[in-house]
Predict the structure.
Amino acid sequence: MSEVSDIGDGDWELWRGFVMMRRQLDRALEQRLQADAGISGPDFEILLPLFRTPENQLRARDLAELLGWEKSRVSHQVTRMAARGLVERRECPTDLRGSWITLTADGRRAVLKASRGNATELRRLFFDLLTDEEKIVLAAASQRVVDAASPDSCRRADEILSGVDRDADTLAAS
Amino acid sequence: MSEVSDIGDGDWELWRGFVMMRRQLDRALEQRLQADAGISGPDFEILLPLFRTPENQLRARDLAELLGWEKSRVSHQVTRMAARGLVERRECPTDLRGSWITLTADGRRAVLKASRGNATELRRLFFDLLTDEEKIVLAAASQRVVDAASPDSCRRADEILSGVDRDADTLAAS
DNA sequence: CCGGTTTCGATGACGCGTCATCCATTATGC
DNA sequence: GCATAATGGATGACGCGTCATCGAAACCGG
């Protein structure tokens, strides 16, 4: 019989810790944003690039690429945020298909209220807990995973997994 | 005007890569599950403990604690899965408030079809990309972050950030 | 036994995220 | 110039996840 799994116990342990870290981190940051500025994480992700850009406005398309979001996600998010007055949609004169997303005064206020707490929390729960060496390791690992998981390499996955879907009776243990 | 925080460029770079890694990883695993067994990540998280348990059934409460989910999340998820025939709800004789969640034959088939590809993808996109040293670093870092973000330490965060004028925020919010 | 409290779980509302679809505009090839 | 594709973006449907609320059953101190 084959192994219980081709993933070792130590690796499962690592994965579990990794998932937990993400969950806790996201939860803490989200709560801080909500308490400080009444906005969500996705709200802040949109607001920050708008705030940093000279004219406080970006094309939806650029926003999508900047954040790695799908276009439809940007559109939905902007719709919700526009309803709350954090951003505004404007037509694009040079490309009539396009639309500019611009920061409103309320949006600017929200960024300012959110930034301090967000940065502090990020430092407290992440950056301050890592040594410089660990940061380098993490950055390198992240890059490798991103490269491996990028659409280009998905075909490779299909090849690897193209065999029979033999039963995986790999789960009875814990 | 471009400075909104005390976090260095290198750290922002790290954070961005980290976020990207999580997104890509989740997306790839999700797609693999969908292609192999027609189920989602949350579906799989529910099915796996049910599969591993001797009687193939668990109390909703235990499922919640096992996964670290809220009870309402379990309830919603089970409702959706029951509608697709992956699990069944049954009344609990010994505690009339409770309910057993049981694995159906379809649910069992789904687990079997999903497990292999999920493990392979996890290895390809994560474990195989990390050296043993990197795994140790990552595990240690994860543990540190989890400890820092655990509910116990949340009060410490409030103290640290208590200098902010949070009163004005609440007034402007609603 | 009885009234308060806690636990179990379902439910509705709402924001998030993806997918499929659609339409208008712009780019491209003949 | 014109047909055809490609792009930018909006929209609806649907699953995911949280929060607040609810009712019912169990627990617990008198």
About this structure: Chain B touches chain A through 69 residues (CB under 8 Å).
